[in-house]
Amino acid sequence: MATTADFRNGLCIEYNNDLYTIVEFQHVKPGKGPAFVRTKLKNLKSGRVIENTFSAGHKITTARVERRPHQFLYKDDLGYHFMDSNNYEQMNIPEDLITGLQFLKDGQDVEILYHAETETALSCELPAHVELLVTYTEPGLRGDTATNATKQATLETGAEIQVPLFIEQDTMIRVDTRDNSYVERVK
Length: 187
Prior knowledge:
Layout: E1 2-3, E2 12-15, E3 18-28, E4 36-43, E5 49-55, E6 59-62, E7 65-76, E8 79-84, E9 90-93, E10 98-99, E11 109-115, E12 120-125, E13 129-137, E14 150-155, E15 160-164, E16 172-176, E17 181-185
Parallel strand pairs: 10-12
Antiparallel strand pairs: 1-6, 2-3, 2-6, 3-4, 4-5, 7-8, 7-11, 8-9, 11-12, 13-14, 13-16, 14-15, 16-17
C-alpha cells in the first residue's frame, strides 16, 4: 500500500479495478480546507486519460509493471508478432495495444509493458523517435522557403506526415512517434 505522497509520473496504480498510470499530478493545499492531489490517469488497457482528485494521504494500491525490449517480426491474421530480445521467445499482440502503429516497420525495436503478477502484455510502445524513408512527396517550389511552410509526405510504412518543403523523395527523416511530427533530416 502506498499513499498520495508516493505519487510520481509513470507510477502504475490499481484504481476502479483497472490499471492506470499517472500522467500528471499536482499537490494542492488551499487556504481553507484539507490538501488534495489532482491527477491525470491513463488507462493502460484502453489508453483513455481521465482526471481524478485524491484527498491527501489517501491509500492506493500500486501495481508492478515491467518494460521488456522486443523486436517486431511480422503481421498476420493473429496479430502482430514480436520476439523477446532477451530469451528469443515469440508472442503476438493485438493491434489495439500498440501505440504509434503507423510507424512500425519490420525489425523495429519496441518496449512491451507487462503486468508483473499476471505476465500479461498491457501495451507496446515504439521509441520516441524513429528513422523512416520518404517514399513520396511533391517537389518543393523554389522561393517558398521564407516561411515555415510544410507539405504532405508518405513514409515507407504508409504513414503520411507534414514535412518542410526542402525534404525530397528518398530522404531519411526522423519522426516523433508521440505527436506524429517531423523532427529532422538524417544524414
